[in-house]
Amino acid sequence: MDTVSSHPNALEMFLITFLIVETFMVASAGNFYQDVDITWGDGRGKILNSGQLLTLSLDKASGSGFQSRNEYLYGKFDMQLKLVPGNSAGTVTAYYVKSQGSSWDEIDFEFLGNLSGDPYIVHTNVYTKGKGDREQQFYLWFDPTTDFHTYSILWNSEHIIFYVDGRPIREFKNLKPAGVPYPKNQPMKLYSSLWNADDWATRGGLVKTDWSQAPFTASFRNFNANACIWSNGVSSCSSNSSSNNAWFSQELDSSGQKVLKWVQRNYMVYNYCKDAKRFPQGFPVECTVTNRK
């Protein structure tokens, strides 16, 4: 894996901060008692502070996880996370939306733990009809274990955008006319889990989970789904004008594209669209279409 490129200079930091201050909004607080169900972990997932905080923990016996009560067909999903501190090698904290069945769609954030002092890797992927293999990975420009930070997924009919603290880090466009599948028809629930993946998560599985550090704990707050709820085959947005939901037609403007390029230039550590060894017969279509634009 390539090392991260040089850090931005003062002018770049000023530009980025200015852009973010203009566009960044903190997610409004939800209530986990109303919004989610803890689905596994035998008590290792806990809802605290009158529904304002949720924690997941992992020990040698089990991890834990939760899912949203609602299904959604398009939306903007925000969650504030504080990741496992210290030696988190081998652990994965996952935060994603996914549909049901064997031909599922999925939009993924996965946070790959590391040895104390080494950076987390943010692993992103987009699945369509059960097929992923669209990994992009990033370092972060902060320590994600000392405080809460906001991770967002925007999903509308034309764009999927991954955000960290309001900064776009990845965009996946609807290129269906070029023959690229896009998640459009399957409603998804939001899921999160904390689990052991020391067979691959840290340095390709070379670094194993140190169970003497258990239990490992990740914390969640301020879940907000500004989204179309799907229930009994009907969308809650069907009778509403899309003009009431800015995310419905949201895309990156020129300022957003500059931030995206800045993040990818300075913090991207893996891009499947650059991995020629992996695709000796040629890159996936979305890589070549996007690169021509």
What does this structure look like?
The chain has 293 residues and is mostly beta strands. It contains four helices and 16 strands. It has helices spanning 10-23, 32-35, 254-267, 285-292, and strands at residues 36-40, 45-48, 53-58, 64-68, 71-82, 91-98, 106-112, 121-127, 136-138, 149-155, 159-164, 167-173, 189-196, 216-231, 234-235, 268-271. Strand 7 (106-112) and strand 8 form a beta hairpin. The relative contact order is 0.22.
In short:
With 293 residues, this protein is mainly beta.
Order of helices and strands, N to C?
HHEEEEEEEEEEEEEEEHEH
Strand order of the largest sheet: 1-4-13-6-7-8-9-16
Mean pLDDT across the residues is 89
User: Helix coverage percent of residues?
Assistant: 10-25%
| Number of E-type strands | 16
Note the topology.
Elements: H1 10-23, H2 32-35, E1 36-40, E2 45-48, E3 53-58, E4 64-68, E5 71-82, E6 91-98, E7 106-112, E8 121-127, E9 136-138, E10 149-155, E11 159-164, E12 167-173, E13 189-196, E14 216-231, E15 234-235, H3 254-267, E16 268-271, H4 285-292
Antiparallel strand pairs: 1-4, 2-3, 3-14, 4-13, 5-10, 5-14, 6-7, 6-13, 7-8, 8-9, 9-16, 10-11, 11-12, 14-15
Active site: 106, 110
EC number: 2.4.1.207
Organism: Theobroma cacao
Notable traits:
mainly beta; 37% strand; globular; 16 strands; eight-stranded antiparallel beta sheet; 293 residues; 4 helices
